[in-house]
């Protein structure tokens, strides 16, 4: 008997305020969001099982907490190889999966074959949130998501709005959406992984910042990746923001099924027309959310407002991020003065173009979050003369365009990562005269020693006015626990050189 042939315990009317009491829920993945999903559904009377391959100390400790409340937590690789059954032997009503689980995972394939619905945490939160719950200002894109979402959070809070960043940053969305005190708005960062399993987003306003090649191994190709990103627009009520310089974002919007009356808003670095935000000389200008967008414009900030976010003033990608954040906040009714206050007070998070050390006029910048070519390009474009530390798991991305576009600013390249070939091939073809050194991991006992060697080598090529930039254009998983560990080790090694912290 398949799940579709059993009596479902989930109501036919999916939301708002989905009642999960009595529902049989399988959660795949027991990380931060997985734990939150189990906790929130358990509190509301669901029968919850969670599976995760890792028996890490943190997973074991968290499992103890939830097992005392009635959850069933199955840790170990043996529990992820096939679809389990509920504790009483019955099938599950729904699987809620974590972003790290690929669609072709055998357990998820088995669930689909059994007719069991698969949801993301985002889908579950949308269905469970009450009708009077917080508005969602949803952001996706290959690069800049975290910056834009945390900028929105800062702007909204300076406007006196009870707001929080959630999703791929900040709180797990399900905690923010179901918070008993209640937020007025959620600045929501969404990855393509989360959107893949989401069908009912229904944001107040939404944005795709850009669509470049990333995670193609997970999605199976560029078209599938772009289709996942496009889901952010589905059901948007008020405004959909797109990047005027990225045709893929406009195509995604043109194909979107939105609420009647929802507006298309263009964002770019040129002078804005009606229903657009853009730059007029050094001013960030809104011609979308004014009383008369055809005859009026609102000055919302200037480049000096965000100059602190770059090593030499605000680089173009920072200005564009600020315009997207301002637009989404303005769609929620925030006045220009509060946009300015929020942007002026905003500080970039760790590992995002963060100046971690200065010595001899050389700035050491940690952009370990730059895990794909487009994000690395943005980081490289912010400097004039760069010693670039790059490498890692390139995830099948083509690096030739990146190197060709940035070759003139490269003073030297220091490669990390177990397989430097994708980078050396791009450098050989597009920057053959740029010195490069590969830090062979076989010569070093641990990642700390490896990063120290990389930073020391990079520093030897840099002089007054140069930037030593960690912007790997690749994932960290081949050598480091995550991008944060990679960035922390870079900062530690840079500060170990002496100079100004």
Quick recap:
This protein is α/β, with parallel strands linked by helices. Helix content is about 35%, strand content about 20%.
Descriptive terms for the model:
about 500 residues; alpha/beta; Rossmann fold; UDP-N-acetylmuramoyl-L-alanine:D-glutamate ligase; Protein-Tyrosine Phosphatase, Chain A; 3 domains; nine-stranded mixed sheet; six-stranded mixed sheet; 17 helices; 20 strands; disordered N terminus
Structure description:
With about 500 residues, the protein is of the alpha/beta class. It folds into three domains: about 20-115, NAD(P)-binding Rossmann-like Domain (Rossmann fold), CATH 3.40.50; about 125-345, Mur-like, catalytic domain (UDP-N-acetylmuramoyl-L-alanine:D-glutamate ligase); about 355-495, Alpha-Beta Complex (Protein-Tyrosine Phosphatase, Chain A), CATH 3.90.190.20. Helices cover about 35% and strands about 20% of the residues. The protein is built from 17 helices and 20 strands. Strands 7-8-6-9-10-11-12-13-14 form a nine-stranded mixed sheet, with helices on both faces. Strands 15-16-20-17-18-19 form a six-stranded mixed sheet, covered by helices on one side. A five-stranded parallel sheet has the order 3-2-1-4-5, with helices on both faces. Helix 5 (about 145-160) crosses helix 11 (about 315-330). It is globular, with a radius of gyration of 23 Å. The termini are far apart.
Query: What's the architecture of the largest domain, going by CATH?
Result: 3-Layer(aba) Sandwich
Give me the CATH fold name of the largest domain: UDP-N-acetylmuramoyl-L-alanine:D-glutamate ligase
Average residue-wise pLDDT: 91
From the alpha carbons, calculate the radius of gyration and give it in angstroms: 23 Å
Number of domains: 3
- Give the beta-strand count: 20
Q: What share of the residues lie within helices?
A: 25-40%
CATH superfamily of the largest domain: Mur-like, catalytic domain
Major pleated sheet: 9 strands, mixed
Strand order of the largest sheet: 7-8-6-9-10-11-12-13-14
Shape: globular
Distance between the termini: 64 Å
The helix count comes to 17
Flag low-confidence runs: 1-7
């Amino acid at each position: 008997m398949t799940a579709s042939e059993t009596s479902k315990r989930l109501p036919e009317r999916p939301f708002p305020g989905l009642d999960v009491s009595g529902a049989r829920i399988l959660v795949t993945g027991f990380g931060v969001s997985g734990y939150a999903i189990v906790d929130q559904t358990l509190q509301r009377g669901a029968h919850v099982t969670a599976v995760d391959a890792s028996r890490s100390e943190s997973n074991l400790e968290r499992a103890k907490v939830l097992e005392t409340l009635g959850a069933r937590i199955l840790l170990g690789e043996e529990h992820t190889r096939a679809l389990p059954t509920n504790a009483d032997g019955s099938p599950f009503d729904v699987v809620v999966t974590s972003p790290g689980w690929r669609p072709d995972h055998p357990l998820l394939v088995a669930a689909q074959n059994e007719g069991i619905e698969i949801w993301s945490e985002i889908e579950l939160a949308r269905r469970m949130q009450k009708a009077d719950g917080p508005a969602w200002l949803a952001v996706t894109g290959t690069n800049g998501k975290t910056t834009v979402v945390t900028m929105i959070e800062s702007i909204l809070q300076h406007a006196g709005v009870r707001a929080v960043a959630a999703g791929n940053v900040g709180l797990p969305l399900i905690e923010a959406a179901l918070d008993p005190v209640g937020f007025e708005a959620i600045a929501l960062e969404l990855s393509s992984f989360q959107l893949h399993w989401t069908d009912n987003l229904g944001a107040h306003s939404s944005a795709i910042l850009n669509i470049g090649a990333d995670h193609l191994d997970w999605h199976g190709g560029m078209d599938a990746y772009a289709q996942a990103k496009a889901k952010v627009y589905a059901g948007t009520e008020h405004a959909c923001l797109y990047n005027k310089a990225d045709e893929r974002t406009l195509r995604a919007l043109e194909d979107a099924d939105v609420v009647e009356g929802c507006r298309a808003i263009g964002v770019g670095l040129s002078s804005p027309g009606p229903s657009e935000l853009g730059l007029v000389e050094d001013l960030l200008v809104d011609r979308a959310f004014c009383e008369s967008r055809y005859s009026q414009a609102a000055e919302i900030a200037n480049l000096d407002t965000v100059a602190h976010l770059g090593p030499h003033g605000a680089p173009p990608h920072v200005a564009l991020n600020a315009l997207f954040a301002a637009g989404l906040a303005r769609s929620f009714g925030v006045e220009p003065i509060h946009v300015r206050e929020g942007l002026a007070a905003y500080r970039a998070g760790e590992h995002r173009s963060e100046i971690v050390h200065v010595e001899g006029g050389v700035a050491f910048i940690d952009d370990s979050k730059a895990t794909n070519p487009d994000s690395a390009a943005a980081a490289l474009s912010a400097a004039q003369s760069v010693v670039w530390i790059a490498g890692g798991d390139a995830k099948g991305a083509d690096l030739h365009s990146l190197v060709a576009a940035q070759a003139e600013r490269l003073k030297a390249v220091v490669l990390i990562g177990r397989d430097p070939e994708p980078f050396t091939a791009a450098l050989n073809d597009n920057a053959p005269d740029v010195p490069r050194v590969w830090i062979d991991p076989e010569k070093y006992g641990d990642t700390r020693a490896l990063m120290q060697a990389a930073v020391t080598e990079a520093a030897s090529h840099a002089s007054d006015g140069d930037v030593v930039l960690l912007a790997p254009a690749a994932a960290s998983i081949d050598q480091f626990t995550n991008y944060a560990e990679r960035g922390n080790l870079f900062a530690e090694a840079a500060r170990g050189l002496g100079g100004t912290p």
